[in-house]
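Trying the structure run again after the queue cleared.
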Amino acid sequence: MRLGGCLSTVVGFLAVVLVAAAGGWVVIRLLQAPIVEPVPFSPEDGVRAQQKIVGLVRRSTRAGSVVLSEAEINAFASRHLDPADLPLREPAIRLRGDDLVNIVGTVSLGRLLNESPLAAFAEALPAGWLARPIWLTVGARGRISTEPRRALRLDARRVVIGRQRVPALVLRLMLDPSSLRLMRVTLPPHVQAVRIERGRVIIQVTSSPSRI
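Done. Tokens:
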């Protein structure tokens, strides 16, 4: 009996140690920075992207295809969008093809906690910890949704915090809907289709507004 009791104690202790070690390993991976592929772009890329997007919104674009390069999209996001509208700081956007897009950037630990069910936990952390940038990687597939309005939706398929992969559902738990609004881009009526190819987005425009 004594031997059995000792073995149970040892096994229980080892289980606690293993759980604690695994938890510590996960935390370390959550705080690590991933390998980020920089996307080179110029100010001219941002201007071209802005002109193309304005033409689409004002319906002044002729029927055919409008092509936005990876550099143009990154320049527009970095130079022409209000930082308050971006859920991630200094985003790097990669167009992988087959309607797949990869978005990498940082968000402060405080924002992650405050917009998640762990908001109460943030009050116990020092301000320096809350300001710490956390890397977030989102792999998504683009598709056109028709409800409630036609829009290009980016459905998260892969989410990584630091270097630790987590369920895609975690993205909606960590960030509130206002932070995720750029994952759904309303389309003008005359935009017929959007394809994400490697290194570029192709937007198909009709000559007159669609009646869909």
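The helical segments are 2-31, 43-57, 70-79, 109-114, 119-122, 127-130, 170-174. Worth checking whether this holds up in the mutant runs.
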